[in-house]
Write a structure and sequence with these properties.
8-stranded mixed sheet, globular, 7-stranded parallel sheet, alpha/beta, 745 residues, 23 strands
C-alpha cells in the first residue's frame, strides 16, 4: 500500500459505535452520569471500561489499614520487648509470636499507606490478565504500586511474583511457575495491554484486536488498518527523482496518537528476554547491547527500579544515579523514572556530574572551560592509553596525597612529550604521529603557563589592573581535563568524597549510551561504586557518533576497564521502528554492521522513501506542502527534520519558518519539547530520542560520504523514526543511500 493509500484508509476508519459488533453489557449504566456507557462497544472494550470504573470506585474507599492504631501497636511492641527477657521459658514463644505478628501488621500498614499514595486513580494500571487455576478464575492488573484491599487486585510489576506471568506467557498459554515454595499451575485466559489516561480507557490491545479512542471519544478498530508492506513484494525503499516525481507524496500513518511523547506505556511492553535482564543479580555488572529502539534504556531503568523495590534500604534513590548522553535525555529519563516510582534518583550528564565533583575537590580552579579545544587534544586526552600513562606515572613517582599534588601530576604528564610518546607507543602503537604529539604539547604547555599564573597571581603580576584582569579571566582548562583530574585524584589521593570526607559510593549506576563515553570517564564512575560494583551499562557501538571519544569495540572496552570476560546481553528486536526503517538503517551501516543475524522490527510499515531535488528551494517547497498537510491530518504527530550539520539545519528551519508552519522549533541546545510539532536539528542532538516521523535532509554525497562516522550517524538518524522515514537529497545522492538502494534490488 502506498502512503497516499494508507492515509485514505486511515481517514476512512469507521467509528466502532457504527461499524463494530456491540457488547451485551448493561446499558443501564448509561443512566448514571458519572459512569461511562458501554453500549455499542465491542465486548473486550466494554469489559475494560467496566473494570476501570469498578477499580476507581474501590480506590476511592478507605483501605482497612487506615483504621489501624499505629501508635497503639508501637506501644504494645515496646511492652512485649521489655517483657520477653523477663518471661518464663515456656511463655517466651507465645510472646515472640505476638511481637512478630504486631511487627508484620505494622510493616503491612506502612506498605499499604505508601502504596495508596502510589496508585494513581487516573492511571491505576497498564495491563490486565485473567488467570484460571483449579477451575477458578481471577483478574490481575499490573501497575506501579500494589492495592489488594477492598476487592482490588492491582500488583506492582516490579515486586509481585504473579507479574512474571504477564511477561513470560501469551494469552492461551498454560503455565507452571514456582512462587516461593509453592508451585502454581494454570491458564492465561486473557492478556491485554491498556492505555489509561485521565481516568478513561484510551486503548485496548489484545490478540483479538486493537482498539483506540480518538479525541472525539469515538472508538476505532485498528486491528487491520495499519500500513502494510504492499505493492513491492516486501518493498522497503522507493526513490523519487525530482519534485514532479515526488508530487502528491504525503507523510503520515495515523499512528501518532500518543500526546505525551515522554511516556509510552513501557512497562506493559517488556518481553521475556528483557525481564530476565531486569531481574539479574543485584551485585554485578550488567551490559545491555542492542539495536536502536530495542529497549536498552527502558530495560536499564526498569532494572534500577526493580533493585530499589527489592531492597529499598540498600538501593536508596539518592544512592543511585543515571548517567546520560545529553540534556535532552536527562529530561526524558527523569520523566520515565517518575513513571516508574523512583523519581528521586539523580539523572546527570557525565559533564555535569564531573564538573560538580571537581569543584568540591579543587575549589581553587576556575569554573570556565575552553570551547575551542583542538580535536587532536580531545582525542589524546580521552584515549584509553592515557589511563595507562597516568597509572604508571603515579605508581612510579612519590607525592603528597592532596589536590595540589594532583595538579602537579597533571601538569607533568600533559607536557612531557617523551613520556606521552613512550606510553602511547606501548599501549596504542602507530595511532599518533610526531606532529600529533607536537600539537598536543603545544596546547597543554600553554594551559600549564596560564594555570601557573592563576595559582600564583603575585608572580610577575602587571601593574595595570586591566591587564591583570585579562590574565585571570582567560580560560585554559578543557572539558576533557575534568575526568583526567578526577582519575588522577583517585590514583593519588583515594576515593572521591562527599560531605565531611565520606567516600562517594553509589550502590547502583546506570550509564546510558555508554559507547560515547571514553573508558577513562567510565573508569572514574566505576570507582565511585560500592564494593559490589553494581552497574548497568547500555549502549550500541553501531550508534557511536563522537569522533574524538567513546569506543566501537566491546571487548577492547572491557579490557581497558579491567573487566575482561564480561557477558553482554544483546537485544535484537527494534520495538521503535518499522521493519522497512530497520532494514534501511542496517544497509546504511554497510561493513560496520556487527551481527550475523539482522535485527528485526516489531511490525511492518510504509517503505522508506528517498527524494532527490535540484536545489534546496525545491526541496523546501515539497516539504512545506507535505508538513502542512500532516499538521492538518495528524496534529498530535511529532516530526524531526535531521541534518548532519547545524548550518544545514539552520537553512531548512529558516525556510520552513517563512512558510508559517505551526509548532515549528529549531533545537540547537537539547531543548526538545517532547510534544507534538516539527523540530529541526542535527543528528547528534537527537541521539537517543524518538519521533513519530523523521525526514533526513540534504543526504547528499558531499554531506554524507561513505565514511564510518557518516554511516553511524545515518544509522542513528534513521532509527529515530517510529512510523515513517523520508530521505531528501540535493545534488548527488549519498553513496550510503545508493548502496542501500542497490542492496534492495
Amino acid at each position: 500500500m502506498s502512503l497516499a493509500e494508507a492515509g485514505d484508509r486511515w481517514q476512512g476508519a469507521a467509528p466502532m459505535r457504527n461499524a463494530m459488533s456491540t457488547s451485551s453489557g448493561n446499558a443501564s449504566n448509561s443512566q448514571d452520569p458519572d459512569v461511562e456507557s458501554t453500549e455499542g462497544l465491542p465486548e473486550i472494550v466494554a469489559e475494560e471500561v467496566k473494570f476501570l470504573a469498578d477499580t476507581r470506585t474501590r480506590l476511592a474507599r478507605k483501605p482497612p489499614s487506615a483504621d489501624l492504631d499505629i501508635d497503639a501497636i508501637i506501644r504494645e511492641m515496646a511492652r512485649l520487648r521489655d517483657d520477653i527477657p523477663q518471661a518464663q521459658t515456656d511463655e517466651r514463644p507465645s510472646l515472640l509470636m505476638q511481637y512478630e505478628r504486631l511487627g508484620h501488621l505494622l510493616e503491612q500498614a506502612g506498605k499499604s499507606n505508601d502504596e495508596v499514595d502510589g496508585v494513581d486513580p487516573e492511571r491505576p494500571y497498564f495491563a490486565h490478565m485473567e488467570l484460571e487455576e483449579n477451575g477458578k478464575t481471577r483478574h490481575v492488573f499490573l501497575g506501579n504500586a500494589t492495592r489488594l484491599d477492598n476487592g482490588l487486585r492491582i500488583v506492582d510489576w516490579r515486586h509481585a511474583p504473579v507479574s512474571s506471568l504477564f511477561y513470560r506467557h501469551a494469552e492461551g498459554d498454560e503455565y507452571e511457575e514456582w512462587f516461593g515454595d509453592r508451585l502454581k499451575e494454570g491458564l492465561v485466559v486473557a492478556r491485554r495491554t491498556l492505555g489509561i489516561h485521565a481516568g478513561k480507557v484510551r486503548r485496548v490491545q489484545s490478540p483479538e484486536g486493537t482498539w483506540f479512542r480518538d479525541p472525539s471519544g469515538e472508538w476505532l478498530d485498528l486491528t487491520n488498518s495499519g500500513p502494510k508492506l504492499e505493492g513491492g513484494g516486501g518493498e522497503v525503499l522507493r526513490f523519487y527523482n525530482g519534485g514532479d516525481a515526488a508530487a502528491g507524496r504525503t507523510i503520515g500513518s495515523k499512528q501518532a496518537y500518543r500526546v505525551d511523547k515522554h511516556l509510552p506505556e513501557i512497562s506493559a511492553l517488556i518481553d521475556e528476554e528483557q525481564f530476565k535482564i531486569i531481574t539479574e543479580g543485584e551485585s554485578q555488572l550488567v551490559v545491555i547491547r542492542g539495536v536502536a529502539g530495542s529497549g536498552k534504556t527502558t530495560v536499564a531503568l526498569h532494572r534500577l527500579a526493580y533493585l530499589n523495590y527489592q531492597d529499598g534500604r540498600r538501593f536508596r534513590k539518592d544512592r543511585m544515579m543515571v548517567v546520560v548522553w545529553s540534556k535532552a535525555m536527562r529530561q526524558f529519563i527523569s520523566r520515565l523514572l517518575d513513571n516508574l516510582g523512583v523519581s528521586g534518583v539523580p539523572v546527570r550528564t557525565f559533564g555535569e556530574w564531573a564538573r560538580n565533583i571537581l569543584s568540591r575537590h579543587f575549589q581553587f580552579l576556575p569554573a570556565d572551560r575552553n570551547d575551542d579545544t583542538p580535536a587532536i587534544v580531545t582525542r589524546m586526552k580521552l584515549h584509553p592509553a592515557m589511563l595507562k600513562v597516568m597509572e604508571t606515572f603515579v605508581r612510579r613517582s612519590k607525592g603528597h596525597k592532596d589536590p595540589r599534588q594532583v595538579i602537579d601530576d597533571w601538569m607533568s604528564i600533559m607536557t612531557d612529550r617523551a613520556r606521552l610518546k613512550r606510553g602511547f607507543n606501548k599501549h596504542a602503537p602507530k595511532v599518533f604521529n610526531d606532529d600529533d604529539y607536537d600539537r598536543f604539547v603545544s596546547w597543554t604547555a600553554r594551559q600549564v603557563d596560564l594555570l601557573m599564573d592563576w595559582l600564583n597571581p603575585d608572580a610577575g603580576e602587571p601593574d595595570d589592573p586591566e591587564e591583570q584582569d585579562v590574565v585571570h579571566v582567560e580560560t585554559f582548562l578543557d572539558d576533557e581535563d575534568d575526568p583526567l583530574l578526577l582519575r588522577l585524584y583517585q590514583l593519588r589521593v583515594g576515593p572521591l568524597s562527599i560531605r565531611r570526607g565520606r567516600p562517594l559510593r553509589y550502590t547502583h549506576l546506570v550509564i546510558d549510551e555508554v559507547q560515547d563515553l571514553s573508558p577513562l570517564e567510565v573508569r572514574v564512575l566505576m570507582d565511585c561504586t560500592s564494593e559490589e560494583r553494581s552497574l548497568t551499562l547500555a549502549g550500541d557501538t553501531q550508534q557511536h557518533v563522537l569522533q574524538e571519544a567513546g569506543f566501537t569495540n566491546w571487548e577492547e572496552f572491557f579490557g581497558h576497564l579491567g573487566v575482561k570476560g564480561t557477558a553482554v546481553n544483546t537485544l535484537k528486536v527494534s520495538y521503535r521502528s518499522t521493519q522497512p526503517i530497520v532494514d534501511f538503517a542496517l544497509k546504511g551501516l554497510g561493513p560496520l554492521a556487527e551481527d550475523d543475524e539482522p535485527p528485526r522490527g516489531s511490525r511492518d510499515g510504509a517503505p522508506v522513501e528517498v527524494f532527490s531535488f535540484g536545489d534546496h528551494g525545491e526541496c523546501l517547497v515539497f516539504l512545506v506542502d507535505a508538513l502542512r498537510e500532516l499538521e492538518n491530518s495528524e496534529p498530535k504527530a511529532s516530526v524531526a527534520l535531521l541534518a548532519r550539520s547545524p548550518d544545514m539545519a539552520d537553512l531548512y528551519y529558516e525556510g520552513l519558518e517563512k512558510a508559517g508552519l505551526n509548532k515549528l522549533k529549531r533545537v540547537a541546545n537539547q531543548d526538545f519539547s517532547f510534544a507534538a510539532g516539527i523540530e529541526v536539528t542535527d543528528v547528534q542532538q537527537a541521539k537517543g530520542l524518538e519521533f513519530d516521523y523523521v525526514v533526513m535532509i540534504d543526504v547528499s554525497a558531499e554531506s554524507w560520504p561513505a565514511t564510518p562516522a557518516a554511516r553511524r550517524q545515518m544509522h542513528v538518524g534513521a532509527t529515530r523514526a517510529a512510523h515513517q522515514l523520508w530521505v531528501t537529497s540535493v545534488g548527488e545522492l549519498s553513496p550510503i543511500v545508493v548502496e542501500a538502494m542497490q542492496a534492495e534490488k
